[in-house]
Write a structure and sequence with these properties.
The protein is mostly helical and 293 residues long. Helix content is 78%, strand content 0%. Helix 5 runs antiparallel to helix 12. The two termini are 35 Å apart.
Amino acid sequence: MSKASSGLLELHSAVLLFGGTALFSKLIPLGALDITVYRCAIAALVLALIVKATRHPLRLGNTRDYGIALALGIIVSLHWVTYFASMQMSSVAIGMIAFFTYPVMTVLVEPLINGTRTHLRDLVCGVAVLTGVALLIPEASLGNDITLGILVGVLSAALFTARNLLHKRYFAEYTGPQAMFYQTLVAVLFLGSFVESTPKEVTSDVWQLLILLGVIFTAMPHALFTSALRHLSAKTVGLVSCLQPFYGTVLALLLLGETVNLSTLIGGLLVVSTAVYETAQSHRQQRQKKALD
């Protein structure tokens, strides 16, 4: 098997596992915050072992980077809590579609940070995403759990966007396992005191699911994703990553029996298609910029 084929297999495996993460919002009978804390505690341990096994240092390069790691960890911990809460309020499909507004958020926010101009097509994409999200909403009332779940999912996307932009600007020199080790560790320290179910109160069956979530669905996909990046173009990685809502929805259908109605399907297609388009456009612009440099 060639390096490219191997990388593509690793990438699809990582995205499939990332999609499968959503199922645990329904499978684990704990609150979103508790799931996040226990997941991160297990993942931090495994990621530390991965960093050591790959002979990278756990220590960061300078004092400033510890401050950045702290900020990123707080943002990502809030992202994960809202990510799981969104699906617990609504469904796996709706939660994932709402979360996948983040690629378009990134395209709209990044020019403001870099001081560049926002293109008209990006604004059109923003309207398309808003239309897709609107199709998910059953009624314009905050008293409806699905509507609340969509809003919380969009908030999760906004937090994820902020984390990605900050990471790209200030923390990109570190490998995926190194960065995620600190972010999961900070999440445990930041949220740990708010846990409702103590470790002793968690049953052995739930611990098995938490270990599965922390090791197979958190630490492993990040390691696979990092490995795939070495052999594939950024465009390929971005486009394949857009399959995450599809994988998550199919797994929820097969394993949880969740169904998708027509408006959710149309809204999801709008959101994900726009994410794919923006990802392709972003990488095309980067390639043109490099050609001019």
